[in-house]
Amino acid sequence: MIHKRILLILAAMAVMSLIAVACSSDDEDTEAADTGSKTGTLQTVLDRGTINVGVKDSQPGFGNLEPDGTFSGIDVEYGHALAAALFNDKNKVNFVTASAANRFELLASEEIDVLIRTTTWTSSRDIDLNSSFTVTTFYDGQGIIVRADSSIQSLADLEGSTICVTGGTTTEVNLEAKLGEAGIAYTGLVFAGDAEIVEAFIAGRCDAWTADKGNLAGQRANFPADAGGPDSLRILPETLSKEPLGPVVRDGDTEWFDVVQWVVLATMAADELGVTSGNVASMSANPPGSAVANLLGASFDGGAINGFGASLGLSPTFMQSVIGQVGNYDEIYNRTVAPIGLARAGSLNASWTEGGLIYAPPIR
Description:
The chain is an alpha/beta fold. The chain is 41% helix and 15% strand. Strands 11-10-12-9-13 form a five-stranded mixed beta sheet, sandwiched between helices. It has a three-stranded parallel beta sheet with strand order 5-1-6. It has a three-stranded antiparallel beta sheet with strand order 2-3-4.
């Protein structure tokens, strides 16, 4: 009898354990479902109703404060693209001027939600500054600009020259490394930003100045007429470095990272697929294939609507808003970077289908 009673007790305990495990599994499933709600910066931005984007204010083509108080440039356009994706209104964005010195501080202190300010993706910034770089929006390289009538024709001619450079940037580090390796002696004149460098260059305080070639092209395009205008400047052919530029978010903010990453990638996919601001409405109504349908959150051939937007915590049709209000990558580029003299064709920023590096993973 005692033996049977023990067996009954053990059996009862086993049943209770199974019930406990089942209950525990149900609880875990519930918690997993709960954690599917939006968190971190994404929820903060949605609750606020606007997005705060750190940009530059002195670089035509990328981030420039115009006389009417508005911002322009490719980085600025991606701020508008995020606002269109989140709120179906590209103007629900607040642009915050970020300097070379304080940009990562603004990001870390959450004064901005994303930094889109011609910021080069490097290992030290990615690892040591608790930052996560999303896909590159512009592949750049550092260059040197001089007066058109200067005797300086190559890096070797910089021996003994004075070179203006922005402090606290990879540009300053690259200049020292590149010219040091070549044994070229020079004097670096360090300034806080572009406006100060232009002023110093016009005053003849430096023989050359160095920055990303995209920046130099923008400064050249806007060089004051009374100082000689664009034709008075010449960019040397050498490229000193690799400068991949793109948006930056805080480490560990996975949902927000995915949103920023895929809004940018989707503009590139739209370019590949031929979806433009001019045809997005008709493409949405009657997609020519499943790839376009997936991008736009539309049904193809009577099939189900793709959950691309829903997976990001956004509307399934968010890319219709982005493309309709801002455009695809090519439209954005041609509206902002091309006017400063940097043609997309033949550059690293051409589509991969044309020999460039702009490439979007499949959306499916």
